[in-house]
Amino acid sequence: MSLEQVMSPIMQQFREIETCIECSSLRQIQVPEVFYYAQKAVLHPTAPLFDQETQSLKPRCIRALKRIFILCDTNRDGALTLSDSELNDFQVKCFSAPLQPTEIAGVKKVVQEKMPDGVNENGLTLTGFLFLHALFIEKGRLETTWTVLRKYGYDNDIKLRDDLLPSSFKRTPDQSVELTNETVEFLKEIFHTFDVDNDSNFHLNFVHLVLFFVHHSPWSDAPYKDAAEKNVLGGLSLDGFLSEWALMTLLDPVSSLANLIYIGYPGDPSSAFHITRRRRLDRKRHQSLRNVFQCFVFGPRKAGKSALLNSLLRRAFSEKYTPTTSERFTANVVDLPGGIKKTLVLREVPEDSVQTLLSNKESLAACDIAVFVHDSSDENSWKKAMDLLLQVASHGENSGYEVPCLIVSAKDDLDPYPLVIQDSTRVSQDMGIETPIPISMKLGEVNNLFRRIITAAQLPHLSIPETEAGRNRKQYRRLVNRSLMVVSVGAAVAVVGLAAYKVYASRKNTSS
């Protein structure tokens, strides 16, 4: 039995063995040959790419190659193929050398012979692209696939390299992260590129196909699931698509940046986002320049908080009551006068979660405005909403993170409880905020609520509630400041008087 016949079963039995080198007393191992295969095993390992048992590409490798294929399909004609020019651009990017027309034809011929559906009239298909890389690996040319993966930012574990992503965004608790105008334009281009039906609805299958190949789409999980407007077919409108990105950037900017890179963001990653001015400074300057506003929605059970969030997404009203057991987010674009667009994020805080939220001193730092919803036909609902308003206002005064507040009188289609109207109006006047805003989700009468929320958030100094305790503290501080001012003025007068007396005495001694 020859040595080759002995080694072949060994490599088949132990698939983790990548290379066997023949040697005998007559043929000694060549040291350079050993080092070559050792270096190849380290720099271009088989294990992350190929499953020796099933003789197929591993799932993570397939997902990475799919992403690369999509990014190379620059014409985005919906055919999901690489044309000859796109295949040549791919070759130049990865290997710094163009392909001659005869070489491109040869590649496609090899694929078509082994995999008929790997090529069609438009060019190389995704199936053919994956087949090529599997063929490279089977032929021992792993360096080809690794060169491609590394050119697109992957490490040895076929994950995006850590150096491409910041571990965090440095900011104070009352600052937020937003997409820059350039990034928004890039996302709009992505949307329109893949809106092959030209119906202004980005279907979820394209979201899954293009955006998130390393993991499953985060838009399938909370807090992003059902957080944006969709049509009856489950497609995202342009506003819904941008709102999902705005929400992800607000809550998890690191993941948002990673996903931007996955879909081929061409600019410097550090320029993709903008850190906003501190909310505390916004209040002092009487203006907020944010493009994305986060509104905390408080209220007792059955007050209409969930209906309010659904209304932002233009969903039909439902009589069925489903209690919210955990925080929920919705986001959508709100049109303002003059063609201005802002993104509003509503964060529903269940009644049972309020105490936990307010136990953190900085819990209101991320809040641009708070809304307190009550059932206008239920006196008890109003009392609970008023108690929540006092808790939040007090927390803001004590922590230094005061937030503008609005009262929403929901279920205006029902017979109002008389004392609720009077009491809520009095409380709003006493606290220095706008009178309650009546709405009826059942009748679709929103009373321009979302636009009014944005307007109040843009002018944060006008709607900050003041509690009696807070008012007393301000009066006390004013009295102390006045007293200090009187003392300072008195001391200054005394100093000036003493100086004048010294001048007078000096002149008198000189004259005598």
Describe the protein in words:
With 512 residues, this protein is α/β, with parallel strands linked by helices. The protein is elongated and about 105 Å long. The N terminus is likely disordered.
Structural class: alpha/beta
Largest sheet: 6 strands, mixed
Low-pLDDT residue spans = 1-7
Overall body shape: elongated
Distance between the termini: 135 Å
On the 0-100 scale, what is the average pLDDT? Answer: 83
Number of strands: 15
Total helix count? 18
The proportion of residues forming helix, as a percent range, comes to 40-55%
Report the portion of residues in β strands.
5-15%
Rg from C-alpha positions?
33 Å
CATH superfamily of the largest domain: P-loop containing nucleotide triphosphate hydrolases
Q: Count the domains.
A: 5
Please report the first level of CATH classification, the CATH class of the largest domain. Answer: Alpha Beta
Q: CATH topology of the largest domain, which one? A: Rossmann fold
Q: What's this, in brief?
A:
The chain has 512 residues and is an alpha/beta fold.
